[in-house]
TrEMBL record:
Keywords from the UniProt entry: Lyase
Top-level lineage group: Eukaryota
Region (Disordered): 1-26
Protein name (record): Dihydroxy-acid/6-phosphogluconate dehydratase N-terminal domain-containing protein
Residue span, Dihydroxy-acid/6-phosphogluconate dehydratase N-terminal domain: 72-418
Length: 460
């Protein structure tokens, strides 16, 4: 049976279309001569006299303290918070920093610019690491769609003007991005961050932010996969007291604190994809959960959201066909989770872009695999942070003509401009000082790691 290759195309949709360029031209954005409308949706309930009940209830919230507050933009801060999972336990705290940043950001000074009000809310989530090997995994994938529905419902039902979403675990990232694509309102994603690697001798500290980021090539780390494998190792070693001690210490110290599983598993893969898509701030995907940079990222959100609202920059202006191509390339370069296949296709569908497994195979066929990161390699996401983060890798890919730097991002600048600023501050990827990422002429594999297998003839 011959497969029919369907050319990818943008699906028809209502609302704003998108066309990004190095000059940031996109159809939904406000032109200079147009009035700023920051409360584009909330004014439906805050302005008309016949919405008195809406206004009465809003007076009872933290955001409204005086009548003029009804002119402000209302921004939702949706955290996938859950105390019983390291990936999500700290997200409510990150959300509080974001809420404070939004509420304290003053008008820009431009005519019709207003302040903002932030309202936090939560969504459900399922930990794959906890539920793996049990019937609890039957709830995992559906949690992605529940998260998407909950974020969309909270924003749509309460006429929120913009959204900041704070995901942490595997299905969280695609879930929130699907919601933002459907809503198509000014939005930012703040990743909860990766966990520190564990060690049977205890976790190593994060590097000081005022010192050069250095890679310790000799440190031996453990992570959640070490815990998955610990019982098999215990059996292999004959169930001896020494084997039990190793098994226990592996389980006890594999997860030393908050943050998503540390290898290039689904969470870090999809967070990296979100950054390549342009939906998160530079460095978001590689800042560890406990790092000062992660807190600073949250504090930086307010001015970013103000710009998105003032300029009416929307997710469908950012998540374009070219942006998805960038995300697919990054997935292959990093040896990212195969779950990226179903998640990228679903996110693309939410913004009206048809993405197929043929597209992903095409990118895999031409993209080398160069990242020595777990589960297939040696290093973890904290090591990516130590060598300068995902922006350095994106800059390297841009210099190598593997990605498009003209795609728009939540900063209001292009991806190329973002990574240029990053390397101007932190320097370019140095292959003499690190081996997390290899040069293109010394790949781990000359093509991508993802392969689709099709039957050569009908099976029915």
């Amino acid at each position: 049976m011959h497969r029919v290759r369907v050319k990818s195309r943008r699906l028809p949709r209502t609302g704003n279309t998108t066309c990004s360029s190095s000059k940031h031209l996109h159809s939904s954005a406000r032109r200079n001569e147009e009035a700023i409308i920051m409360n584009r949706y909330s004014r439906i309930i805050t302005q008309p006299k016949d919405q008195g009940a809406s206004q009465a209830m809003l007076y009872a919230t933290d955001g409204i303290s005086k009548d003029s507050d009804f002119n402000k933009a209302m921004v939702g801060v949706g955290s996938v918070w859950y105390e019983g999972n390291p990936c999500n336990r700290h997200l409510l705290g990150l959300g509080r920093h974001i809420k404070e940043s939004i509420a304290s950001t003053p008008p820009s000074g431009a005519k019709d610019s207003t302040g903002m009000i932030a309202y936090q809310f939560g969504t459900v989530g399922v930990s794959d690491g906890i539920s793996m090997g049990t019937w609890g995994m039957s709830y995992s994938l559906q949690s992605r769609d529940l998260i998407a529905d909950q974020v969309e419902t909270a924003a749509g039902g309460h006429h929120l003007d913009g959204m900041v979403v704070v995901p942490g675990c595997d299905k969280n990232m695609p879930g929130v991005l699907m919601a933002l694509g459907r809503l198509n309102r000014p939005s930012v994603m703040v990743y909860g961050g990766t966990i520190r690697p564990g060690s049977c001798s205890g976790p190593s500290p994060l590097p000081a932010t005022d010192s050069p980021q250095e890679l310790d090539k000799d440190r031996k780390t453990i992570d959640i996969v070490s815990a998955f494998q610990s019982y098999g190792k215990y059996l292999q070693d004959g169930k001896t007291p020494e084997a039990e001690k190793e098994r226990y210490e592996t389980v006890r110290y594999a997860c030393p604190g908050p943050g998503a599983c540390g290898g290039m598993y689904t969470a870090n893969t999809m967070a990296s994809n979100a950054e390549a898509l342009g939906m998160s701030l530079p460095g978001s995907s590689s800042f560890p959960a406990e790092s000062p940079e992660k807190i600073q990222e949250c504090k930086d959100v307010g001015p970013v959201m103000r710009t998105l609202l003032e300029k009416n920059i929307l997710p469908r202006d950012i998540m374009t066909r070219e942006a998805f191509e960038n995300a697919m390339v990054l997935t292959m370069i990093l040896g990212g989770s195969t779950n990226a296949v179903l998640h990228l296709i679903a996110i693309a569908h939410s913004v009206g872009i048809e993405l197929s497994i043929d597209d992903i195979q095409r990118v895999s066929d031409r993209t080398p695999f160069i990242a020595d990161i777990k589960p297939s390699g040696k290093y973890v996401m904290e090591d990516v942070y130590r060598i300068g983060g995902i922006p350095k890798i994106l800059h390297f890919l841009l210099k190598s003509n593997l990605i498009d730097g003209n795609t728009l991002t939540v900063t209001g600048r292009t991806l190329g401009e973002n990574v240029d600023r990053w390397v101007h501050k932190y320097g370019e990827l140095d292959f003499d000082k690190q081996d997390v990422i290899r040069p293109l002429d010394q790949p781990i594999k000359e093509t991508g790691h993802i392969r689709f297998v099709f039957p050569s003839e009908r099976l029915y």
